[in-house]
């Protein structure tokens, strides 16, 4: 962005690479190209009927006005009940704020705490938005690269080495977008042992994929491992992924009362409450039938297994088995240095992704967007036939390399 009338804090950030890739795939499709879209970062299921119905009923009842900035008492109580029953985390409704999506909660949490130059530890591979959100809040993202050999997980040694007196936050995301890496309770305990030695560090847990995991177990929380961290931990979650409600824009944060109070003030002077109708829908989601949540996870699991089988059969590609979320994070190092039919050489994961897009119409996101190379992210939030077709085309494109 060149225009000098745009503030520096916005000029230093960029559009989300996954949104950019999704828009590029949509554009090519509009031009009539046959595109297999494996970029999508949202469930392909419809929001369940009882949730949609609750929203319609709320409209008919006249729940169409402003609510309390932090959300309706009923929704905050439902969130408190969910955190207690599912996560064994006990918060009063007043220590919870509903937001316009988890993304909004994360952004506002950084906005209320980060001073110019404060460091925020972002383990890579990371969700694309974290570093740019930190930059937009005048902070310094400190990228901590986690290796494939470590399962793309932060280790205590890496964490210890990255902490400085300026470290304000550690952001943890389990299961992770893009790798699906999921921390065990023991791993979280080991990380908290380090954190307990550094009381200036706040901990933000992005739990948005907690229910999309493949072992049927509950996702452990760092506060289960180390309740001592409670006064400096902010729990972030939302209904987007679990309930196929990405468009409704309801997320939330739970945490220490000073942080929640500051979030409330900022929200009161910016967006005000999240949509009243969406809050009614989220209330129905959290307090209604949960049986389909496991059904969704089962469907993702079948797609994961099929995608892994096909990808790992393509020479030059390899993929670890993700524990959760709906992505495969594929190592494409074996393709680097190979020649394309038009004489080019694949030098990076961006080249690989461009080659797949231009030669076979398969849309993916390059690993560099997530802070590590050479990888690409392939979404499995789409029909198994689409995954199969994408893999078939990638196999053909790889076979055409010399
Ligand atoms: N965190 C992660 C890791 C995500 O992948 C996403 C969605 N792509 C979000 C947060 C944002 O979710 P929401 O729709 O609730 O804003």
UniProtKB/TrEMBL annotation:
Enzyme class: transferase
Segment forming the signal sequence: none
Cofactor dependency: pyridoxal 5'-phosphate
Region called Disordered, residue ranges: 1-22
An MF annotation (GO) of this entry: L-aspartate:2-oxoglutarate aminotransferase activity
Organism superkingdom: Bacteria
Residue ranges annotated for the Aminotransferase class I/classII large domain, each copy included: 33-393
Compositionally biased tracts (Basic and acidic residues): 1-10
Keyword annotations from UniProtKB, A to Z: Aminotransferase, Pyridoxal phosphate, Transferase
EC number: 2.6.1.-
Coiled coil: none
InterPro entries cross-referenced by the UniProt entry: Aminotransferase_I/II_large, AspAT/PAT-like, NHTrfase_class1_PyrdxlP-BS, PyrdxlP-dep_Trfase, PyrdxlP-dep_Trfase_major, PyrdxlP-dep_Trfase_small
PROSITE patterns registered for this protein in UniProt: AA_TRANSFER_CLASS_1
Family of this protein: Belongs to the class-I pyridoxal-phosphate-dependent aminotransferase family.
Name used for this protein in its record: Aminotransferase
Organism: Herbaspirillum lusitanum
